[in-house]
Amino acid sequence: xxxxxxxxxxxxxxxxxxxxxxxxxxxxxxxxxxxxxxxxxxxxxxxxxxxxxxxxxxxxxxxxxxxxxxxxxxxxxxxxxxxxxxxxxxxxxxxxxxxxxxxxxxxxxxxxxxxxxxxxxxxxxxxxxxxxxxxxxxxxxxxxxxxxxxxxxxxxxxxxxxxxxxxxxxxxxxxxxxxxxxxxxxxxxxxxxxxxxxxxxxxxxxxxxxxxxxxxxxxxxxxxxxxxxxxxxxxxxxxxxxxxxxxxxxxxxxxxxxxxxxxxxxxxxxxxxxxxxxxxxxxxxxxxxxxxxxxxxxxxxxxxxxxxxxxxxxxxxxxxxxxxxxxxxxxxxxxxxxxxxxxxxxxxxxxxxxxxxxxxxxxxxxxxxxxxxxxxxxxx
Length: 380
Ligand SMILES: Cc1cc2nc3c(=O)[nH]c(=O)nc-3n(C[C@H](O)[C@H](O)[C@H](O)COP(=O)(O)OP(=O)(O)OC[C@H]3O[C@@H](n4cnc5c(N)ncnc54)[C@H](O)[C@@H]3O)c2cc1C
Fold this sequence. Notes:
Elements: H1 7-24, H2 28-34, H3 39-47, H4 66-79, H5 81-101, H6 104-115, E1 121-124, E2 140-144, E3 147-158, E4 165-171, E5 181-187, E6 193-198, E7 209-220, E8 224-225, H7 231-267, E9 269-270, E10 273-274, H8 279-307, H9 313-338, H10 349-355, H11 366-379
Parallel strand pairs: 1-4
Antiparallel strand pairs: 2-3, 3-7, 4-5, 5-8, 6-7, 9-10
Helix pairs in contact: 1-4, 4-5, 4-7, 5-6, 5-7, 7-8, 7-9, 7-10, 8-9, 9-10, 9-11
Bound molecules: flavin-adenine dinucleotide.
């Protein structure tokens, strides 16, 4: 057991923080209000190697692990959760599904472009009628000759409108249940493939979330990703890593909210002294800092286990559940510590308060995390 960061991890955190404060912070509210997708910034992150952290160098990645990946997501999200979720969906969902389940040709075609940010990726599992019950997917894919035809629609896909590559799940063998769903790689411009409604959201407004539509979308046989019928099961494995990134997203936003609250509590004076001198405010800060620390430890443990090649279904679900719920509480208290100013857009905490709620919903709600954890506990 070693609780120390390596010098490289310390340096990585410093570098990402500097980038986020210089390149993202000045634009956060403008992007949020106009719902501007920060395309240029994402390309810059790609050039710096932050979009391919977990992939090998020969595929254009940085050859790092999930602890480093979590540090990157945390530091981006500490400044802007929208950038955090864009990078998370791109890296640990789309790119990682191709890396884990793709054949050599698919890895060589897609990973170098995705890892460097030349291409942006999205990952489409959720449908209007299949959210928590993702095995209820209706989008279908029919094989004739060596060509697949996809019909259906996905909803709530992060990056949909800016993606060059989409990984989507579709039913290939109805009646085979969870083993009747396959994954496909769809490139922008594929016939019959388009995006639909872009959602107007409560938070994470600079990230684009929306529909992906397949109308007689034709794909070459080689666009099947992984084994036929294993797309859903593979998705669950991809989500094991994805949940580590949502925990990191939660921790990053919670850290941003906590930092702002701590700073404010020292300068805001009432009754002739800084509010940080009131025990009621100190207790809030203590609980926030403690929960933040606990969330981080849970997540780095899951990340370390994943880097060692272990199955982390229980640990990543626990990290995601705890970190997201704690982050919602921390952002709430950060607003409370700011009093009326916490409700005003001149201060950063109102945005954290809005943005962080997604973390208890995306990549499996808190209720579904509990279901996943319960299954693991009872199995053991
Ligand atoms: C901003 C944003 C980005 C997203 N990005 C992506 C993406 O990139 N790709 C993607 O595929 N999806 C994405 N999603 C979808 C997200 O993963 C789903 O919204 C989530 O899984 C919940 O599904 P749902 O919205 O259909 O809710 P529902 O499944 O309808 O759930 C509604 C409520 O019922 C509860 N519930 C459901 N089933 C059970 C049960 N068995 N036991 C107890 N409670 C239950 C839920 O916990 C929830 O409280 C995104 C969503 C948002 C909002």
